[in-house]
Amino acid sequence: MIRFDNLRYRSLAIDALSIGKGITSVIGRNGSGKTTLLKLCAGITLPESGTIIIDGNPPRKDEIGWVNEFPDRNILFATVHEEIASSLRFRHIPGDEIEEHVMSCMNSMEISHLGKRSMRELSGGEKVLVALAAALVHQPRLLVLDEYDSHLDTDLTEKIEGILRQSLVTYIIRCTQDMETAARGDNVICLINGKIGCAGSPEIVFSSLVDTPFYPLAWRCRT
Fold first, then answer.
1. Domain residue ranges in the chain
2. pTM (2 d.p.)
3. In this model, does residue 158 exceed pLDDT 90?
């Protein structure tokens, strides 16, 4: 369980919140605090007060994967293979184990053909896939995705959805502006002006958003 208690950072204020296993979609208007919340969950930013605890550990003492909204900001190394291997090298894992993990990850995501390619030569969608592979290769407990789908077409979004569902990551927290994607999550959090507007299953959250732009179009059509 991920628990938030009396969390404060700038305009973000969460008194109490628990997130269970699976995929949690974070939605809300621009400026509502979505990216701030994700950065706090990833340990990139520390709260001004209060706590975030992931199965007993604060974020910076747990295994966390992070994918930035802008593909080029994820890039650290020259080639795809080096980029995916980077998180393992930082953990001083032996070279043969790194090779095994990287190849396994690339094969499972069907991107092994990109291994020797320069990161700068990749398309935006390919960069997102590589960033996701780099975040998954060390098998994090929590994977945080900040609007990773904002530059993707429908086919690639569907492919990544399948990758996420097949992964062994305990917790996935993703911010998205696509309500169809958000509705596929196991849990949804709607932020309003830095506070929790509503949280729960997609059915519970979206039932309170029927008359707003956040109600999924597919749900609107089926009713």
1. 65-139
2. 0.94
3. yes
